Amino acid sequence: EITSLLSLCGGQFSGEQEIRVNSPFWILNIPSEEMARGLMKRTVCAKSIFELWGHGKSAGELYASLKNYPTDNMLPYLQSDSTYKVHIHTFNKTLTQAEKIKKIDALEFLPFKGKVNLKNPEHIFWILEDYGMNPNDVPEEPIHLYFGRWIADGQRELIESYSVKKRHFIGNTSMDACLSFIMANHGRVKPNDIVYDPFVGTGGLLISSAHFGAYVCGTDIDYNTIHGLGKASRKNQKWRGPDENIRANLRQYGLEKYYLDALVADSSRPIWRKGMLFDAIITDPPYGIREAPRRMGSQKETVKSVEKSTENHFFVSSSYHLSDIFFDLLKFGAEYLVMGGRLVYWLPIYRPEYTEEIIPRHPCLKLISNCEQMLSSHTSRRLITMEKVKEFKDQDENSYLLDGQYMPYRGHNSFREKYFSGVTKRIAKEEKDNQK
């Protein structure tokens, strides 16, 4: 998320950045404070950002680092007519108030000239202490310390204010608000973009994009969901109300002006005019666990598959294999994304069989990131972000069939069976039997 937002703000995430995987603290080299503020106006993953004045692996190293920090950089924030306070934050350890005051008093060598104001200071300084990630093995002293000037907080409050629990219209698979905002950030959604979701469902992914000023639209094969009809997904509610629909969700957050429309359509069938139409495609295709993946079938197919959607709305549905869903999605993105536009989607994975080779590829799309979210001990889903780097030509239509990428993912057509198989229990039992 941070990498995507840096590039959106005009910055670059270089290999020199100090990313410590086993720490909640990162040191980033950001060209300007303005860019840092722009980053924090979007992120839901990062909590706060600071101008780093010094750091070290011990208190002595921290103090030495602070003494080497250019005084000219400090002075604008330490003037006699200014107010300030020092805040201390410890990760994985709780300090007493006396311990905190002792650590703050140890910084008296800094040239603070202003007055302390704990309620409404002009400048806030933070001591950050990292005591590792293991709550069962907390060291006596921090393994790393940082001191800096607070610049801005992230957007963590969006997770609560956009919570699905408060949402007007939801379904069985409505996307969690936090993940929805992360996906919009991966897609580098910005004001006046056009964002499309081909499996729109109840429109949860449209809301985060609209919040960032993009115009949103989507399609879904389910007539009832698009029109807000049929049985409700909420507990103690039998049928959906007359105003439960995607538009009502956006209206709830004051975002209705960004709503273009939602269409009843089959994502596997072309309905759009040729051309680069969308700045981002952000979606969560069905995995076949809570909602069955379906596409339009022909009248020749078995009569048993005919479903009645609502009165006067019939369609013939046929099975839609996972491998086909994702390769159709990549082909659609390659054709309809603008150059530099991004495709962001979730890919379900059976972990014992996972290798990077099974990630679907397309010659017009470059893989940007691949992040895992665990679902169970043997299944997960991966948030895949791809960027359009090459113009779509007719010869790219079925190129995925030629490069050997199509076959490795075919095994995931049985993802639903594997999800419910309880295979880990069987493996554990076999290992236990082998140890006897």
Automatic annotation (TrEMBL):
It is found in: Cytoplasm. It catalyses: guanosine(10) in tRNA + S-adenosyl-L-methionine = N(2)-methylguanosine(10) in tRNA + S-adenosyl-L-homocysteine + H(+). It is an enzyme of class 2 (transferase). One of its GO terms (cellular component) is cytoplasm. Residues 166-292 form the Ribosomal RNA large subunit methyltransferase K/L-like methyltransferase domain. Residues 21-156 form the tRNA (guanine(10)-N(2))-methyltransferase TRMT11 N-terminal domain. GO terms for molecular function: tRNA (guanine(10)-N2)-methyltransferase activity; tRNA binding. Gene3D superfamilies: Vaccinia Virus protein VP39. GO terms for biological process: methylation; tRNA processing. Its EC number is 2.1.1.214. Keywords: Cytoplasm, Methyltransferase, RNA-binding, S-adenosyl-L-methionine, Transferase, tRNA processing, tRNA-binding. InterPro entries: DNA_methylase_N6_adenine_CS (IPR002052), RlmKL-like_Mtase (IPR000241), SAM-dependent_MTases_sf (IPR029063), TRMT11 (IPR016691), TRMT11_N (IPR059073). Belongs to the class I-like SAM-binding methyltransferase superfamily. TRM11 methyltransferase family. Part of the heterodimeric TRMT11-TRM112 methyltransferase complex; this complex forms an active tRNA methyltransferase, where TRMT112 acts as an activator of the catalytic subunit TRMT11. Catalytic subunit of the TRMT11-TRM112 methyltransferase complex, that specifically mediates the S-adenosyl-L-methionine-dependent N(2)-methylation of guanosine nucleotide at position 10 (m2G10) in tRNAs. This is one of the major tRNA (guanine-N(2))-methyltransferases. PANTHER family: RNA METHYLASE-RELATED (PTHR13370), TRNA (GUANINE(10)-N2)-METHYLTRANSFERASE HOMOLOG (PTHR13370:SF3). This is tRNA (guanine(10)-N(2))-methyltransferase TRMT11. The gene is Trmt11.
